[in-house]
């Protein structure tokens, strides 16, 4: 048996060798590496913020730095970690599942580096300048020059803009891969493929009565790819809206820097908030729920070796979720007195409550697919998939509770919002689903490299599950007692809850450390470094049939 040092440098006994990989495998692993690095950034910052809620450390966390970190923390987690892991996985899986080459390897590479550089730009700007309008960027806060230097805001928005450009390139690559005709292939039926991917085929079957007799083989696009395509629509809309918002703020910053202040120019705050939350909510209630549902179906199918249960209705629900995601934003404005009552009741309460049906159906279909395939071996990917299902099973109802006008008056802007809903959804629901995907894809991406330690994988699972659910629960308890979010408390009124939440946060850090060590030990430092060396092979996309057959 090799020593720890030998293993770290040279890889494990089934040595991983980066030079044996195709450029596409290397690129996907780069997405994973940077996604995990930024997850580490967000996790460490989150823990520092949590420590400050237990015991304020004035020399390190004076208010400006605290709120700057609070601004960067969710953005690094969403754009730096989740986007990179999701985009990397889907850039790999779409051509895999369609059995055709990726449209552009160069565009995928540009997507990676634009997001990596963009995230570092706004994170480092916040670290240096303490620019801290918080991720909501409520007007006129981001352009308030009495609080923030214009140059700091300009750099911050530039970082966000780089991320959005990378995001739009991802959207372009996904849809071009769906619809283009590779060299030497027969002409692809572009319109039919696009219609099937976006759900028009299912919609036609539903209204013409063909739904009962339709089969999965009738579709041109596999179910997981249909989910990716529909989620990518929300990605595109979100990127356009955030880009427009960033340009608006940047215009004010540049005007101030050039001596042509726009302070007297009116921007209607309520209109701005509706516009901004419509775009931002496409990430939370559209992109996440649609992408996650598609990931569940793919993982369940790979784990069981079976077709997804009620696949035709899964397709229908994905299309319904996409439409619902465009109309739910007003639940963020239920406590805004100026918001029209029609929007509060229609969008904020009724349409939002419908997400309990669409996401509940996705959870039900996935669980039944797994149940019908019993007995199953409790592999890492199955454990983390079940953890992801549990996370959304807890977080979605918590969100529906917030979307009640009466309860919203109590819960709005408290730790309940960010705890049982946001952190449980992202840390337990989304992240555990992504971990399941990583465990599934790792042997495929590394040509069969064996995971270094199953014991570390088990510790990773339990610490992450207990830490994520526990932290969300204790934050929620503090919120029910009146603890506000985005607020520093000095009297220790909520300290017992924050101590318990901090212990759970430490479990999350332990889980991440175990996972990171396991991945590094599986690849070896030499193997990991080899990912960033130019491949001597031509850029050849992975060809169909390389995914091993799933074993029930």
Quick take:
The chain is built from 17 helices and no strands. With 552 residues, it is an all-alpha fold. The radius of gyration is 23 Å and the shape is globular.
Question: Approximately what portion of the residues adopt beta-strand conformation?
Answer: under 5%
Name the average pLDDT. Answer: 86
Low-confidence stretches at least 5 residues in length (pLDDT < 50)? 1-13, 540-552
* Discrete helix count: 17
- Portion of residues in helices? over 70%
Q: How many strand units?
A: 0
Please write the string of helix (H) and strand (E) elements: HHHHHHHHHHHHHHHHH
Largest sheet: none
| Quaternary organisation of the protein chains | single chain
The helix/strand class is mainly alpha
How much is the radius of gyration in Å? 23 Å
What does the overall shape look like?
globular
Termini, distance in Å?
32 Å
Question: Topology, pairings included?
Answer:
Elements: H1 4-10, H2 23-54, H3 63-98, H4 105-129, H5 150-179, H6 190-198, H7 200-208, H8 223-257, H9 269-304, H10 311-325, H11 341-372, H12 380-402, H13 405-411, H14 415-445, H15 454-480, H16 495-523, H17 525-530
Helix pairs in contact: 1-16, 2-3, 2-4, 2-16, 3-4, 3-5, 3-14, 4-5, 5-8, 8-9, 8-10, 9-10, 9-11, 9-12, 9-14, 10-11, 11-12, 12-14, 12-15, 14-15, 15-16
